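Re-running the complex after MR caught last week's input typo. The corrected sequence lines follow. Everything else is unchanged.
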Amino acid sequence: MSSLGRWARRSRPVFTVYMPTMPFVFFALFPLYFMLVTSFKTNAEMYDVNSVPFWIGRGVTFGHYELLSKETYFWSWFVNSLMVSVAASAISVVLGVLAAYPLARLKFPGAESFGVAIFITYLVPPSLLFLPLSTVVNRLGLSDSLWALVVTYPTFLVPFCTWLLMGYFRTVPKEIEECAMLDGCNRFQTLLRILLPVAVPGVICAALFAFTLSWNEFLYSLVFVSPAELKTMTVGVFSELIRGDIYYWGGLMAGACIGSLPIVVAYVFFLDYYVSGLTAGAVK
Amino acid sequence: MQLKTLNGDAAKVAVRGDGHARALSDVLVGDAAVAYTFVAPAFFLLLFLVAYPFALSVWFSLSDARVGDAGSFIGLDNFRRLLTSSIFLQTLQNSIVFTTLALGLKTVFGMALALLLFRITYFKRLIRGAVLLPFIVPTALSTLVWWWMFEPLYSVVNWTLKHLHLVNHDIPWFSDAYLAMFSVILVNTWRGLPFFAITLLAGLVAIPKELYEAAESDGAGPIGRFWHVTVPLVKPVLAVVILFSAIFTLADFNIVYVLTKGGPMNMTHLFATYSFALGLQSGQIGQGAAVSLFLFPILLFVVFVQLRVVRKSTTYE
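Corrected-run output:
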């Protein structure tokens, strides 16, 4: 009797916690699973109304991936996304570090208003500014070039990086910094030698998020760059694999899989940084 | 505060030797200069690529600018025309429905998921990681699979419903106005739920255990503890998450553009997609800019409330 009671007590979380969590996990993962499965399915099976859609019943094919490689600029899109994301993230992290330091540490006239300005731009959605920005990009002579993206992505990345890094810099005790300055370091050296090493997790987190946000960006890329070979991953897959009324569903899914892969890999390795970056904006 | 301690130290150093003290006073005088130098790159970037485009957007909205034509000042004509246009009023209604329902779903299910994740002990990282995934994957690409799942002929959703004998015909997910709205709300919820859950989870973890124990010894059951301990303490985090998400849900472009392009018959257009259709696809930049500017008052409201919440919480510390 008592062993039954113990068993009931121990297994209670299975019913009250684990089983109710399963629908959420299923909801989150099923579309991604279905994306992967479809990308390896033959057209004959995919377009057969009578076959079970949940798994591959009639053999695996790499045809959709071949279609991507041979008949589209897929790998150019991949490289474009990579170059733009790396460049925009590098610029944004550097500008973010430089701006976050004085905002977190120094007192200067205008500090508070600039902090508020950073916060407002942090919340500006790209859909508010894409029309005038396309005019600006045109005037700078950057339209239909990847530079348009390298220049405009930092507009939403810099506020994010600055906001995130301000939080990290504030956690470094002031005394350490003061000691360094008494030993003859100037502000820049203090930032480089004292604050940055301590704030490394913050910098990694900012870089990861900047990369992810750039890689995932869609609207600016759609608007500013139109030649097929210059598109980024998200726009290329979406716009080049739907030709008129013909949808290359296998190719679309294959493109979506490879397009998500770099982010998923980064995510698996740096899960904790993603979680802390996600909550940094909201929980202070 | 900082200046004071530095001055105190400076006095001490002055006794030790001249050189150090001089360097330090130079540094102190230079603080504002250093600050401006460090902030300058970010400042000019935001000035030229956020503030200036914003001003430009306001100018566009007050002009009859078209693609390749700078246009001239026409006052509030664009706004007047929008407020009498049935498509715009439909967009306004869609935006309210979309944002309210998506936020409501994300709040309720996000809270539920956060409470579950909070109590999970085995496979914690794996389950959290899995649940967070939809937020990380590129939205434009993950929306493609939702499109494929709702595709009129080969929809896996319809296949399942038919084989469970819940329906006996294909459901037209994107050609029926209500179903199309349901689909975009569903995908938005799918993508945004992890943000709610993970952030609220961080809020839950921050609640001291003693409070639950105290409530329990006062005779509060699980439901009582939820309403009298969890809810009041998680409220500030919840408020910030909802406000934050309100902007980005209202301003959503990717999901609607990929899934329905605003259709059928403009029934799923939001500000962003309608502004895109007007400004870029039919070249009426003035009207398009006016539509997108409707996002701005909401943005200001959220900034205002958030800054007040942040200030409040810092004064309590």
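None of the earlier attempt is carried over here. DSSP finds 14 helices and no strands in chain B. Residues 239 and 306 of chain B are 9 Å apart (CA to CA).
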